[in-house]
Design brief:
Elements: E1 2-6, E2 9-11, E3 17-24, E4 33-38, E5 45-50, E6 57-59, E7 67-72, E8 77-82, E9 91-99, E10 102-105, E11 109-113
Parallel strand pairs: 2-11
Antiparallel strand pairs: 1-3, 3-8, 4-5, 4-9, 5-6, 7-8, 9-10, 9-11
Amino acid sequence: VQLVESGGGLVQPGGSLRLSCAASGFPVSSYILRWYRQAPGKERELVATIGVSVSSTTYADSVKGRFTISRDNTKNTVYLQMNSLKPEDTAVYSCNTRIFLTNYWGQGTQVTVSS
């Protein structure tokens, strides 16, 4: 099982980024995938979740209406579209899944929102 995030970078407030989480070793269509983030000095925060049913998505209140989680089963990849970014969205973003009670994480991708 492997998760590889990409798409982070430096963006101005109000801008957009799309993060990707490429999975291998398991089908993303069959498992719950999550995006977390952790800012310096803060606890890790669950940002978004997508269930086995594509319509089953949940978001942290802090990102609701601005972020969208989605999945492309043909590419075995999960995405996080982030719009209207704010400086407080600055963090390392990681994707996660749990298979047979084992948590798997990617290496994370840095998102910095700054002018």
